[in-house]
């Protein structure tokens, strides 16, 4: 609220938040955070002790239900070790989740799905700033994965046995510098072209909004050139 100028100080923000029913502050890494002003607000009479108890009670009730205060032996996750990380079962589940979360907006002449058996010997082109850049594939508040487990579109397609050519066209999502000649060279020889575009946290994230819904930089030009 302070950053959006709804309030003018941490103290005022703490009072407004608690009175509005907020009982949890996202202040990771902040020693000097808004809710540290609650004792001051209580002393000034801006909030009451009963109000604080009402706000804290559901927090600790939830933590108790989650088992945070149970002995470690009662926690089923205590028996897990690093062997379960990236286990075949978990990777298969992640693959299933990825497949089931795709949204297909249009499928002209039944182009999709691309089948591995049909791609053998075919020449594919995968282009665009999101085609082979692991860093831009993750949104805000995403985990930091081990690079060996990140499959970009280019890496995934190369596993299908097809002849895959690649060019980013522009090295990052803002796409300020676009190599049209390189793009045309790659796509002209391909039977199938996959264009990977988007925004990413470089363009939009918390506290960083776009002024319009257009593709950043030369991305639209890249798409039009690939189609043409």
UniProtKB/TrEMBL annotation:
Q: Which residues form the Glycoside hydrolase family 3 C-terminal domain?
A: 103-226
Keyword Ribosomal protein in annotation: no
Determine if Membrane is one of this entry's keywords.
no
Q: Which is one Pfam family of this protein? A: Glyco_hydro_3_C
Please name the GO terms that the record assigns under molecular function: alpha-L-arabinofuranosidase activity; xylan 1,4-beta-xylosidase activity
Q: Which InterPro entries match?
A: BXL, GH, Glyco_hydro_3_C, Glyco_hydro_3_C_sf, Glyco_hydro_3_N_sf
Gene3D superfamilies found in the cross-reference section: Glycoside hydrolase family 3 C-terminal domain, Glycoside hydrolase, family 3, N-terminal domain
Keywords for this protein: Glycosidase, Hydrolase
GO biological process entries: arabinan catabolic process; xylan catabolic process
Q: What is this protein called?
A: XYL2 arabinofuranosidase
From which organism does this entry originate? Answer: Loxia curvirostra (Red crossbill)
